[in-house]
Specification:
The chain has 214 residues and is of the alpha/beta class. Helix content is 43%, strand content 16%. The protein contains nine helices and nine strands.
Length: 214
């Protein structure tokens, strides 16, 4: 992560912490964290699910509606294996570029693709984490829980599993943390055993974002 990116991230998260209705992290009182994954489902999804099965870890997946609509069997598989799912826009367009009608249409089509039958139905993560006052108000009035994150793995830029694992392990991770990862990347998949092992060794439990916020 560059210094510029780090400063921009700090400013962004500081502002988000002041905004009601944004879910970024859970309580700091208990040693629980949530692993979250964006941009599925895709050709790597079953590998991610198999790895999480091996690690005995539940996670939260924010799915692109268009991809979910073409892979309904994978949507069911997330749920069958005990994970939470939520929306990530229908085609990954930034919510800040959409007017109210277009934003609600994106979310409604995504809900339909996800089946509309889980705790994830009313959860949405804005693509790129980009949200502004009009989009936030629109989502909240429509009943959505807007889910962001508190720690970015930066796995979209760092392709070394060891670097990703180090960034997402104690002491960088603290209680209540919501960690952001992405599907479709072998290096992220390779980093997961070390991340989960380091968290467990430090006494942390991995839960879904829904459970973390409950």
């Amino acid at each position: 992560m560059t210094v510029t990116h780090a400063v921009r991230t700090l400013v962004k998260t500081t502002l988000f912490d002041c905004v009601p209705g944004l879910l970024r992290r859970g309580a700091r009182a208990s040693k629980r964290v949530a692993l979250t994954f964006d941009d599925g489902p895709d050709d790597y999804t079953l590998r991610y699910l198999d790895k999480l099965d091996e690690l005995a870890v539940p996670a939260t997946f924010f799915l692109i509606g268009k991809s979910a609509a073409t892979r309904p069997a994978l949507v069911r598989e997330y749920l069958r294996r005990g994970h939470q799912i939520g929306g990530h826009g229908y085609d990954h367009t930034r919510f800040t570029k959409l007017d109210r009608r277009a934003l609600l249409d994106q979310c409604a089509r995504t809900d339909e693709a996800l089946g509309g039958v889980t705790t994830g139905r009313s959860w949405v993560r804005p693509p790129h984490g980009t949200v502004n006052t009009p989009s936030l108000v629109t989502l909240r009035l429509a009943g959505y829980k807007v889910a962001l994150w508190s720690l970015d793995s930066c796995d979209y830029g760092d392709h070394d599993p060891a670097v990703v694992a180090e960034r997402c392990s104690p002491p960088h991770v603290t209680s209540g943390e919501v960690l952001l990862f992405h599907e479709g990347q072998q290096w992220t998949l390779d980093a997961l055993p070390a991340i989960v092992g380091n968290l467990r060794n430090a006494g942390y439990e991995c839960v879904t974002m829904f459970d973390l916020m409950s």
